[in-house]
Amino acid sequence: MKYEMFDAKKIIGEVTLQEADANPNIVVVSTDSAPRTGMTGFITKYPNRYYELGIMEQGAVGVSSGLATAGKVPIFCAPAPFVTARPFEMFKIDIGYMQQNVKAIGRNCGFNYSDLGPTHYGLEDMALARLIPGVTVLAPIDASQLRGAMRAMLRHQGPVYLRIGTAPIPKIFEEEEFTIGKGQIVREGKDVAIITTGEIAVNVFEAAETLAAQGINAMVVAMPTVLPLDEAIIKKAAEATGRIVVVEEHYEVGGLGTAVCETCAKLAPVPVKRLGVPHVYLSAGPYIDLVKYCKLDPAGIVETVKEFTTQEK
Amino acid sequence: MRTGDIKELEILAQKSRRNVLRMIRANGSGHLGPAYSCIDIVTALYFHGMDVDPKNPEKADRDIFLLSAGHKGMAQYAVLAEAGFFDKSILDTFGQFKSPIPGHPDMHKLAGIEANTGSLGHGLNLACGIALARKQDGLKSRVFVITGDGELAEGSNWEAAAIAAHYGLDNLVLFVDHNGLQISGQTKDVMSFEPVADHFGGFGWKTKEIVGNDMKEIVSAFDAVPFEKGKPNLVVANTVKGKGFSKAENQVDYHYWKPSTEDMALAEKELAAKIAELEK
Predict the structure, then answer these.
(1) Partner B, chain A 97-126, Cβ-Cβ below 8 Å
(2) How large is the ipTM?
């Protein structure tokens, strides 16, 4: 199916500017990174609310926390590994432990920097963020959800990590309203449930149609909030289908797949297949090649789901 | 509550030292050396330098103090108790599960604590954020930070040093508790950042060096802020680790102290004598 495509950075910038017009406490913290996160409009309109710090992520997290102490709503935006992994201990304490009203945007998550390789992959960012108690973790699926998630994040009181790629993002849903903590059944089905998050979801939607044509009726659950996790919808999916595949552009370790396993172990034990990025250092290369290698393309998802659904429980 | 009377401040500092001993007695151990090293500065902060109100500890335009070296937390608790932020009976809960005064400060547990410190190298960046916001809001209030000298080896401090200078944060005052000792020995031997003032000066800070256990010098430093318009302020406070208990002074073994009954009695006796002498 063809979708209208949007520039994710532009959406981030537009929503920030709209919300900043209404809330004078919104400020932007940059590590040589905000202009490339769509913030040029904000910077031009509100230069006194823009803090460029240069390439120093530890400092940026601490400064963001300090700004929050003084009542500001700072948005710190940079590539995903430099928002989460690089300053992790600052994130843990200055944002998490202090429960500060800081909004961290990890852009170019997953394989977005495919030509650069593991230094710039964001494949453990969700794992790191969801280890920190009290941090909301968002991974919107399409352009509408990105708009909604940005608004919800900026109006939410408390720390939030939002991960997003910066490749063109499809508009799949009409609805822009975004409720933090809620999953969504996008397609009903009884043979298997595919739970997915982030922009890779578009491949799941395509795979589900192919599977249906081949006689496998998959329920598809979109999970744009990874923490707090919508455990009720996972339980419902598990009970309705008896087996779950989790698809994410993230290491299979520590992300949504792990979170779903934890939930199933607690509430509805069913077999779970995690389809993500293998826990190794993958070579740089064209994005599409990396996605295919990990079987995260529609054909790979179809193959994995078929194999899984024919296994004995 | 604010005073410029040096003798009065000295008495308050000694009474605060007595509060530290009370906490150590309750818990059986604690970071005596670091707390005693900086407690004269902390006393001057709350009783002279800062605009804070124990009855309204969250007022929007208050001055803010961040104890970046959170393991010196007993010094802050001791002074907060002396200043009336909380009842002194809470000092006896030090070390207990769910105490409002844990070994490292927790802003969610006690009014007057502004950050969760204890992991080193955090306070100065937090302070930069607060100082930036205060300037943006047109407030005259200031942000004070104490770091240890060993703590300067954390690279995050130097990110903050650059930020503060770049943005001209003359509403930020850093005291480096320069007692020259850390767990493994003398700071200059473990990892030298000497001369400390020159390092910060190179970033664009305006610096002063004082005897950090001399109340008159501390008060003079406070009164001189901002040292220069448009520059962040550094006070290299040359202190004595364990200052106030003869056996602990300049002794790295007293960094974390588990006192014998005799040592505790001696420390209390020495303090009582000093307070009596000052109150004559």
Answers:
(1) 97-99
(2) 0.96
